[in-house]
Amino acid sequence: MTTLKQGWRGADVRRLQEALNRKLQPSPALVTDGDYGPRTRAAVLRLQAVHWLVEDGEAGPCTQNVAFDGEGDAPILHPVALIPPPAAPLCWAAGVAMMTRSNVREVVARTPAELVAADGGLQDFVDTHDAGMEGGRRFAAAHGLEVRPPPPWSLKALRAALREGPLMFDMLWGTRGGYADGAGRPGHMVVIAGIRGDADPSGRGTTLRILDSWPPNKGARSSVNFFKWLQGASSRTCRVFNK
């Protein structure tokens, strides 16, 4: 599928404009002249915002799926509140709070003390790369969650898991981002609350809705293409938690 962008002209752009008029019912309607100009780009951005797609003003596979009713399954979006931590090391507690509809203070209080580092971050559990997952199970049990190792997620498997509820991915901290002391340690919790798109197994036509407690005192909601997300997350995920 060709990604349509501002400056493009032709029959594909005209069909997109017609679809945007049907979906958005703008007043006045877009002129279906086949010219991807500023008004068409603005309409694409509006469609992307309404349907929690990546807001880039370009009509790629995910945007065209929505415009032309090409999504294979109904979108899944769980009502998860964004909770940022008061300090960088407590990102893990904010992620758990989002999963359990709690708050950072209560999550810290419920967590076994030996699993928390001196700076408030998560200890580097000995099972981070151990299929036994004993430390992960203790952590999960303290919060009424289940834990699983990080399998190579196929689109089908991830969608099936998200039908049951949101997922929290425990990511290893990188060297950038303002928490250098945590580099290489677990505890950067990212919650996947939604998924929408087609059945293309590559994931290029699928969007994930992600809630990240980073940065402190702010957090972030974002939409990410599944294919791109998988490339960056697969080597950094050490555990996955679900309700």
Q: State the helical fraction.
A: 25-40%
Which topology of the largest domain does CATH recognise? Cathepsin B, Chain A
* SSE string: HHHEHHHEHEEEEHE
What separation lies between the terminal Cα atoms? Answer: 36 Å
How much of the sequence lies in strands comes to 15-25%
Determine the structural class based on helices, strands and strand pairing.
alpha+beta
The unreliable regions are: none
Indicate the overall shape.
elongated
CATH class descriptor name of the largest domain: Alpha Beta
Number of domains as seen in the coordinates = 2
Largest sheet: 7 strands, antiparallel
Number of helices: 8
- The total of beta strands comes to 7
Q: What is the rounded Rg? A: 20 Å
Overall mean pLDDT stands at 90
Named at the architecture level, the CATH assignment of the largest domain is Alpha-Beta Complex
